Amino acid sequence: MSDPEPCRIKHEDTEEEKDLIKENEKETEDLSEEEEKPVKSLSHPQTEKMFSLKRSKKSLTCLHCGKSFTCKGNLNEHMNIHTGEKPHTCDQCGMSFRHKRNLNDHMNIHTGEKPHTCDQCGKSFARSRYFKSHMLSHSGERPYNCEQCGKNFSLANSLKNHLIVHSEVKPHLCSLCGKSYSQLGFLTQHQKRHSGVKDHLCCYCGKTFITNKELKQHQKIHTGEKPYRCSHCDKRFNRPGILKSHERIHTGEKPFHCHTCGKSFTHCSSLQNHKKNKCLK
What we know:
alpha+beta; Double Stranded RNA Binding Domain; two-stranded antiparallel sheet; globular; disordered N terminus
């Protein structure tokens, strides 16, 4: 999904768990009050009972998965995962959530508030998950790997969506040329090529683009932004693909294989050139 109006310097989306923290603080205060009271001389059985009570207070265990919590409120919130209950409902749109922190995060969409700000580029986000995804763009980290094609993704959900590409199911059909796509977003993007609609405008030079991705990539020419840093030599790049290609110089990885002669290459372009030059076994 495209970011809205990327040509502007946007301030868009880990919500602090305020309610859970309050409960923890209350419990801490209660424990502090107990500690401040004069300690009476207790017999051995009394001492065992006292410590047993404190241990039970600090060890609330989920009967479904065995996970332990120090605060009853945290345990109650966690139980919603097992029951499927979503008790926190948005009074604006009716959408429901398992955790109150997720509702608070969602409410920023309605209020327009964007509390999650990147300390590297200043961009802001309404939702914490969008913020987390954005932060990975600076590190270049893409821990989720597609076993079928080797492509890496920063989010598990992105990998899940990508896997549809490898399936034979392509239900989204272009009415103009008959080409089909596994995802509706791909079809929508494709149809713009037929219509010639370029609704993504560069605010630096006025050039227009069909997709938001193309616009954002183009704008790095104007800004000089190079957010992707090599972990081996600190060299920086404006595209994650270029970074990954560069790092193979350090790792010696050669993922592109010629199925005719078995020779391997560091870059896809090298493999293509090899094939054009009439590969011989």
